[in-house]
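In this supplementary section we document a worked example of the pipeline. Step one takes a protein sequence of length 136 as its only input; no multiple sequence alignment statistics are reported here. Step two produces a three-dimensional model, which step three serialises into structure tokens for compact storage. The input and output of this example are shown verbatim.
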Amino acid sequence: MRNNVWYSRFAKIAAHYCGRPRVFSMAVAVILIWVITGPIFHFSDTWQLVINTGTTIITFLMVFLIQNTQNRDTEAIQLKLDELIRATKGAHNALLDLEELEEENLDAFKFKYQALAATARSELVHGNQDTGTPEP
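The serialised model returned by step three reads:
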């Protein structure tokens, strides 16, 4: 558990720091320095290998940091939505925690809401309002 907390804290700080304009500017500066040094190193294979290896390693590590941040943000949004559903009178509590359902169950809910949307659009075409709380 301690490693998980450490990684989560590190990923959050690293993702926050790496998303700043200063870090982007530093990355552009590294590329520019690499391009400028091309003639000095006669555009050698080693010169190309340096940038290829460096960017590959950084990209590989950033994928995990970005995924961790994305997972945390998505989970927080889902919990907030679940709380809104739970606290809203008349809301369908069966919609809580939908992201955990199997694909076929999720598709069943989706079909019901698509049917509601189609009915509402049809009502709009006929000059009626599309507000209300119809049952799915």
